[in-house]
Amino acid sequence: MQLEQQFDQNEWNSAELQEYLLYLEQREKDVRLYEDYISYSQKYYGLGVKQSPG
Predict the structure, then answer these.
(1) Which domain of life is it from (predicted)?
(2) Domain spans of the chain, in order of start
(3) pTM exceeds 0.70
């Protein structure tokens, strides 16, 4: 996975770190929205399997 490779480098400058934290924060929101959407879909359309994003 790409993230693990990034952590192995251990050479963050503050701009990269800031950008990365923003990325994680955004991704967390996306995942939450996705999960809300999935449970909404299951409730109203009876869709079967819950899939995780990615």
Answers:
(1) Eukaryota
(2) 14-39
(3) no
